[in-house]
Known about the structure:
Elements: E1 12-14, E2 17-18, E3 27-32, E4 38-44, E5 50-57, E6 61-64, E7 70-77, E8 86-90, E9 95-98, E10 110-118, E11 135-140, E12 146-152, E13 163-165, E14 168-175, E15 183-188, E16 200-209, E17 216-223, E18 234-241, E19 247-251, E20 255-256, E21 266-271, E22 279-287, E23 290-298, E24 305-311, E25 321-327, E26 333-337, E27 341-342, E28 352-357, E29 363-371, E30 374-382, E31 394-396, E32 418-421, E33 429-432, E34 438-447, E35 450-451, E36 458-462, E37 467-470, E38 483-491, E39 508-515, E40 521-528, E41 541-548, E42 555-561, E43 571-580, E44 588-596, E45 599-605, E46 611-617, E47 626-627, E48 632-633, E49 640-642, E50 648-650, E51 656-662, E52 669-674
Parallel strand pairs: 1-13, 2-14
Antiparallel strand pairs: 3-16, 4-5, 5-7, 6-9, 7-8, 8-16, 9-15, 10-14, 10-16, 11-12, 11-15, 17-18, 18-21, 19-20, 19-22, 22-23, 24-25, 25-28, 26-27, 26-29, 29-30, 31-43, 32-34, 33-37, 34-35, 34-36, 36-43, 37-42, 38-41, 38-43, 39-40, 39-42, 44-45, 45-51, 46-47, 46-50, 46-52, 48-51, 49-50
Amino acid sequence: MRKTSRSHPLLLAFGILTCLSAAAGAQTIFTEDFNGYAGNQNNTQVDTGLEVAFGGTVAGWSNSGAGTMHAVDLANLGGESNPSDWAIMFWQNNVITQTVGIAANDSGTDYEVNFDYGTAVYAQAGQATSASDSILVEVLRGDDSVLASNTFPPGAWGAGNDELEAGRQGARPCVGDGTGDVRLRIGPAAGNFNQGRFAGEIDNLSVAELPPGAINITSFTATPDTLADSEDAVTFDWTVTGMPLDSLEITPGNIDVLGDTDGTGIGSYLLDPGPDGTTDYTLTATKGGDTVTRMVTVTLPAPEITSFTASPSPVTPSENVTLSWQVGLPATTLTIDPGGIDVSGDTDGTGAGSIIVKPTETTTYTLTATRGTSASTANAVAIVQTPPNPNALAYESFDGITDMDLNGGPNGQVTTTHDVGVGGSLAGWSNEGAGTIHAVDTHNIWTGGVVSTNPPNWGVMIWQDNVITQTTGTLGSNESGVGYRINFLAAGAVYQQAGQVNDGTTDGLRIEVLRASDDAVLHTFDHITAPPVGLGDLGLLPVNFTYTGDGSGDILFQVGPVNAGQGRFQGTIDDLQLTLAGSVSGPEITSITEIGEGVFELTLLGAANTGYEFRSSTILDFNPGILAENLTAGDPAMGTIGGSNDSVLTTDSSGKGTAQLILVEPKNFVMAIESMP
Length: 677
């Protein structure tokens, strides 16, 4: 099986499978590890961060097709300098052919071609190997006629940011015909040419001569190899050499099939029902201490989710959002999270369905469709925007960014597929650093090569040296002794290269409060950002900090990197707002209801993640009123209770909170006021 040349914490083996081991006593005639590859290393691979190259050559091989040879270095992440371990990747029309023959074609002699293979992609996720792609391996005679051939499907690309798509070991047995030396030719299978994808990758080729009478599995198949339902049966067929054998077994299940094999080594077995999910079956033959294996995959495809959307988006808190989907049937289960909502009953006979939700905050909904134990998922994001505080001293949505190069299509931002742009400008702000202003559209993602058409909502992404600075100070933003609060949304950031994502531990946004008159730094706040969450989800979270004015003149904001010069994005910022920290005009008590003698429940709408206290009074001037203590959670609970003697209700990320409190008559009025830190 394929292995990297060294260990790396980010390269975790994933689904390593052995298809065929070399026959006992085989004599190796030829090997090729492709580590003599020389090409143009210009990028990193999507998901893995491994270095990738194109336009390369390997001695002893010719090549054809756009950009050949493409290759991935299994031993090096972007910027590393370990000894290379190259594997060749096959873009849509890439073919490589040996230029020198191998003396492996004696008449009647058994030979075997062994190799490792796996899925492949370059820097754009949309070019990754799909489940329908296969690699074609051919053994050519001297006149280019085909002596033997077979296709090898590596499966769909499935790596994440911390996973390396594992290789599979393949083999092709053939019998020599005495017509002279042979050569190997490798490329996409016929039906996979010019599909705009990588068909797979290959490494560690070898050709071996098999001794007469050697134990070997020359074929092992499953019919059908793709099931329509988990109740379908599968027929396994095989041909083995070296009879009689000591044992012959199919796993999983430890099925003894030696009795199902005739004296010539041909056998068949019916498995009814077949597997409850996609399963790799291995046939293992043993004789006299020698063991050979061969694997076949039986696929129970998960239902295909062709669309899953949230509309309208954006909305205000608790506004109706329709989640709509189209799913390929049959499906065992259909659920939507959060909430584990069973939507099978909301889906018609064509696989179409919809429900209405009322999100109180920006929410990523995940639709999971299962067939047996095979599952597929899709995300839809309902953007919930809390209107800016009407009493804000300053507010910047960043939606006025202009002159951007919108070059993020057709796949958008790595990980999330959000639309991205570079080189923009924003009125009222200066910018410096390579490519500024970088931006991500938090409302629009790419699906099937087409960007969605929600109204754009841009957030600024800070690349390693990017800095944006307000050009004009904000009036009333620095009165002596006055408390001020800065609220913003923050998330991780990346463009189209996975290796440029913020590291989640040291990278982040630095917000500096500058005196407009001389750019002196009055306050610095660092926020470490988590990497983007996944498809359609940036992971934007509300953040706030406070500062106290010193009366030295109006301030302006500057946003830059915490960890500059690292070759990574530091984070995304959006919806920056400045308010008085002690303002009493922002929060609104939207309801108050008596639920028991002297016990009242109230709901509050205020700033996101902000603490509020409540004062009661018999007169409206609240001078200062009586502080309500011993607050308890409302029903339903929104926000959290804390502070001294449980006197503070902190709102959730949508600015909502509920609390129960005791009011002793005749206190007729209740006021909410922001709690000072």
